[in-house]
Structure formats: structure tokens, C-alpha cells
Amino acid sequence: MSRVSLRGHASLKKNKVYEKFLTERSAANPKGLSHYILEYVKWMLMQNYSEITILNRKRYLSYFAIWAFEMKVEDIQSVTRELLDIYKKYLFEIKKTKNGNPLTTHAQWSRLEPLRSFFSWLARKYHILYNPASELDLPRLGQTLPGGILTDEQADAILSQPDLKTRRGQRDRAILELFYSTGIRRLELVHLSIYDINFERETILIQQGKCAKDRVVPLGSRCAEWLKRYIEQVRPHFVKNSDVLFLTNAGDPLSTAYLTRRVRTYIENAGVQVDGACHIFRHSMATLMLENGADIRYIQEMLGHARLSTTQIYTKVSIEKLKEVHRNTHPAER
Fold first, then answer.
1. 9 counts as catalytic
2. pLDDT in tens for each of the 334 residues of the chain?
3. Is 210 a residue of the active site?
4. Active-site annotation holder among 185, 186, 235, 283
5. Domain-located, residue 142
6. DSSP states of 68-91
7. Distance between CA atoms of 41 and 248, rounded to whole angstroms?
């Protein structure tokens, strides 16, 4: 097999090279790393792990399997704590192919954390005698604030960009309204069914979101109107035996990459200088609702966060209330 460099990790995802590698190496060595990674994936499926968790762990574990293969290590018994430390150092020093920048601390953490879960599973299933990743130190993650918070005016400017004279433009307006109104995740949106919308109650059912949890969130009247318009007037021209809510002109479900490109284009056309695409609507919705007096527990429910501490980061972004307190209490202001 030809040499595969981990430096091309972006192209690995795009071209499914990692999946081909796992399949080929599993067939060549039924007791090797690739074989057990695929077994671990099957186990996660049986345990009802979320799709995004399974995809991410499979991808990041394949990165390690490719790197280990190039280090001439393929047997799971040959993976030691020392080897994992070398891999950790490798991730710290590697440069991205696209821009030559190093991996962020979070990116390094994302590639190492699945190793701890994977080798813990191997040990529990008695495939290995000891867990070499049990004491693997992960990079410390600082608490970063969400970036790209839109003002209400900026959000409206972006939402007004789709060409409503076209069916695709009307579809995209409904998508943007849904992002802004509900804070839905990109992957959750592409998996929505027409039956998840309740127009009578103006709610949407988000099934199997992060951590495989369902939640019901309000749509808001404006968003509900755009969705109803799309479903009744536009979607019938796209549909071909599918319950998926949002479809391409050819009647296929949207991909997350396609969705990102479309949203990013509208942001740029609106002249809004902000990093990100779909997720900035999620950050903005949470921040603006907090600034307008929403209880953080309701924001937690809207976003589908398992822990309140995850939602509380938005209180640090919501600067307007802090400015008001400063204005009313600081001696210089008084």
C-alpha cells in the first residue's frame, strides 16, 4: 500500500481515504489496529452513540492507525504509553497543509481523547492486557468564548440575502430563519423530517441530537411562516420519495458542507465581517436571548446542552447586562 501522510488530514475526510485504509488493513491483518477500530465502531453503533460521535471517533482513530502503520506498528499489543507520547508530540509539531499553522490545542485534544476511549474499551473486552492510554495526559483546554456574535441588524441583513424569486432562494431563507430562531446545529438541520414540524404549536422536534437526545423547541411565528411557505410552495418541486425536510434541486438531502458554503456566501454578501457560518446563528441566538432577559435554563433547553456549565459560557459573551451594571454602580459613571 502506498504511503499515506497524516499531513493531508483534511483530504482524508473529503476522500474517505481513512475508511478505505481501515477496510484494507483489517482484511490484511484481522488482529491489527484497523480491525479493532472497526469493531469498536460496531460496538458504539450497538450502544446507540450519536452519529457525529461515531464519525468523529472513527476518523480520529484512523489518523492514529495510519500514523502507527507508518511507524511500523500495527498490532494492538505493540501500542505502548511511549508510542502514544510520541504521537502526542507529533500532533503538537505537525503543520496544517492548507495554511502551515499548527493544530490548535482543541484539535490536538480531539485526536487524542478517542484514543483513551478506544483503549479503555479494548481493555474492558480483554483484547489487551493493560490500557496504555489510561494515564495519557491530554492538552489542557482553555475556556474560549464563542466568536462571531451577530447583532440583530446583522442577522436580518444576512437573512435578506437569498433571492426569493428562485425556489432555492426561498428554501435558503427558510434555512436561515430556522438557524437563527432555534439555534439548531448544522447536522441536526440536515436530518430534519417534514414530520418534525408542528405548525399548530409552532414547534420543531429535533431527534437524536448531540448525545442522542431528543428535544422540542419553539419555532417562532416568523420562522414558522417561512417554513410553511417552503413546504407548501417550494419543496414539492424538489421532492422524490423522501421525508427529509430540506432538499437540493435534484431532490437529495443537503450535505453539511453544502450548507456551510451556502450560509457563508450569504454572510459575505451581506458585508458582515465574522468568522464561521452556520454555528454563528446558534451563538447569536443564545447571546441575544440572554441579553433580552431569557433565563439561562431555557437557553440550555433550546441548545440541547447536557450541562448548564456549557451554556453558562454565553453569560460571559452577553456584555450588555454587564455594561448596564457598570453604568449604574461604578463611581466614575455615577
1. no
2. 434 444 433 433 444 778 889 999 999 998 899 999 999 999 999 998 877 788 889 999 999 999 999 999 999 999 999 999 999 999 999 877 667 788 888 889 999 999 999 999 999 999 999 999 998 988 887 655 556 788 889 999 999 999 999 999 999 999 999 999 998 989 899 999 999 999 999 999 988 655 557 888 889 999 999 999 999 999 999 987 789 999 999 999 998 889 999 999 999 999 998 888 898 898 888 888 888 888 878 888 888 877 766 666 666 556 566 666 667 776 776 6
3. yes
4. 185
5. no
6. HHHTT--BGGG--HHHHHHHHHHH
7. 30
**pTM listed for this prediction:** 0.66
Beta-strand pair 203-206/215-218: antiparallel
Count how many domains the chain has. 2
- The CATH number of whichever domain residue 29 belongs to comes to 1.10.150
Query: Among the options 59, 210, 262, 283, which is catalytic?
Result: 210
Domain that holds residue 67: 6-124
CB 200 within 8 A of CB 228: no
